[in-house]
Amino acid sequence: MQKLKPYRFCPVCSTKFEKKKVGLEQDIRNVCPKCDYVMYVNSSPTSNAVILNSENELLLTKRAIKPAIGKWDFAGGFLNNNENPVDGLKREIKEELGVDCTVGDFVNVHVSLFPSLWREAALNMYYYVKLKKGKIIAMSDVAEVRWFSVNEIKESMMSYAGNWKIVQQVKKSLRGR
Ligand SMILES: [Zn+2]
Predict the structure, then answer these.
(1) Residue at 1 is within a domain
(2) How far is the CA of 33 from the centre of ligand 1 (A)?
């Protein structure tokens, strides 16, 4: 994991941050001395699709871009500001797979470090998703789309620890059926 670069300047007015204690907790944060902007750093939310076919195979997408290029992922991605996770997931599925979908039950949430310089971590939410009729095409940041039997998915193939936890959860739930 590369070392994260600290934030140094106010994103509103470009003044150099000062370290100050803020709020009831008196946590030390980056504060702008000119416009009082306080830099809160949070995990970035993503919405992700757990898609099973009638043979209980899992649909995974191969990453076409860094980080974790060439590793397998669940379809989905980062939410836009003020975007509902279900709406964001429908948007991502259309962008990545070229088909519409219906979003079903919530599966789980996992937090993973995201190895880039400007995002500290991703907060990944997972939903069961059913694809509507149509041809699945790998698009956007997806290089390839494939159905996997859950037993052939190995930890080393997966992009992030959270995704592997979801594979294990799905496997367990299929055994219980
Ligand atoms: Zn400022």
Answers:
(1) no
(2) 7
- pLDDT per residue of the chain (177 residues) written in tens, 0 to 9: 445 567 899 999 999 999 999 988 888 999 999 999 999 888 999 999 999 999 999 999 998 888 888 999 999 999 999 999 999 999 999 999 999 999 999 999 999 887 665 667 899 999 999 999 999 998 888 889 999 999 999 999 998 889 999 999 999 999 876
Q: What is the domain-level CATH number for residue 60?
A: 3.90.79.10
Neighbours of ion ligand 1 (CB under 5 A): 10, 12-13, 15, 32, 34-35, 37
Dist. CA 79 → ligand 1 center (Å): 26
Domain extent at residue 111: 44-175
Cis peptide bond prior to 115, omega within 30° of 0: no
CA 44 to ligand 1 center in whole angstroms:
22
Q: What is the DSSP string of 45-98?
A: EEEEEE-B-TT-EEEEEEE-SSSSTT-EE-SEEEPPTT--HHHHHHHHHHHHHS
Decide: pTM greater than 0.85.
yes
